[in-house]
Amino acid sequence: MHVAIIGGGMAGLSAAATLAEQGIQTTLFESGPHFGGRARSVAIEFNSQTFQVDNGQHILLGAYHETLKLLEKVGVQEKQAFLRLPLALNMISPRHKKTFKLANLNFLPHPLNQLFGFLCCKGLSYKERISVVMLIVKLKKNNYRLTIDTPLKDYLLDNHQSNQTIKFLWEPLCLAALNTPIESASSKVFLNVLRDAFNKGKNDSDFLIPKLDLSQILSTPIVRYLQANQSTVFNNKLVRSIKPIEHDFIKKGFEVATRLETHHFSHVIISTAARKLKDLTDDLPDLYSVTAQTETYDYQPIYTVYLQYPNHITLPQPMLGLVDLTSQWVFDRGQLCGQQGLMAVVISSKGNHQKLTQDMLALKVAQELHQAFPHLTKPLWHKVIAEKRATFSCTVNLPRPNNVTPYPNLFLAGDYTYADYPATIEGAVRSGIACANLIVK
User: Fold this and answer.
1) pLDDT score for 290
2) pTM, two decimal places
3) Could you say which architecture CATH assigns to the domain 299-392?
4) Cα 325 from Cα 351, distance rounded (Å)
5) CA distance 356 to 354
């Protein structure tokens, strides 16, 4: 048995690591110079200095068990890699001079720690807090499942959530989890994420914020593990075609062609992004219906604006949310990973900010931060990283293919194949592991 894995993002890396653990020969092809897909670090230069930052500021949840088990397997120690924070939302609206604060009361047993956390949150009226608690109780009773999918905002309004509650609580969580506007986001998928975070262990709702750059945490140790377990790993190796091999009407595997070479494999896992699937299916006509689905996907951007302030500048908390502004989340990387004075501001989903030049956007974000935190001075430098197709839009009843294809021993991996989740690291990892297990069984 020899398995080809095409695509070195988190789905492909997790599939390869799962197979390598079982002693199955694998060859991983990555078309670009870097592994990890959208979860990777980049180097930026300023005044002859090199700064290592991420292509986007990521957050994991304590409920991302498969990702955490994968990292443990490849030798990543959680305490060194992540700052684990019990659920705490600190949302600020400087325009209206309002704040919202929510924190689990972890001295109480689960789930009372969460219910009383919602009941005691600050920034909502007593009636609004009771409505939130009643919704959580209803969701727990139904195991966070819906029979009919609806836009999330409609679902929340139907369940007596006020506009204030939606703006300060549910919309920020929706953008962080689904990167999709709340008016069109899938209620089913959002509730799946809430179920994993809120309905199981006390620590599942924790935030895990990277303290090291993402490549150090994710792709580099996984690739090192693969190489130590006799897997072949290629980067800068674009796969041009995949062809089924038949001899005397008996299927004999697949021919995988790059620019200069052709390889034969017993199994293939295609773990590219959904939008790139069509490029590999010219010789796989039975996959045309799948590519027809994925070709209809809309995509959402994520902009990360890095602003360097003097080293002594800090924020009240390592992670803060902003409301009624273009900026949505701000991370103090000095508190997170020792990059003193460096702030990372995340802007999810489509909006008017996309019409601005990068310099104009950085200026706007700096002005908004000064409005929220008046002690901030003028930034020394800035860097804008725009992932214009960061995630697929996780909309109502979005068609999602699964791992199995009409071709025996040919599988699809990627966050878009894990229908229970939006486009997240955990969804990608679970899909890769599922493909590997289909081969191992």
Assistant:
1) 95
2) 0.94
3) Alpha-Beta Complex (3.90)
4) 11
5) 5
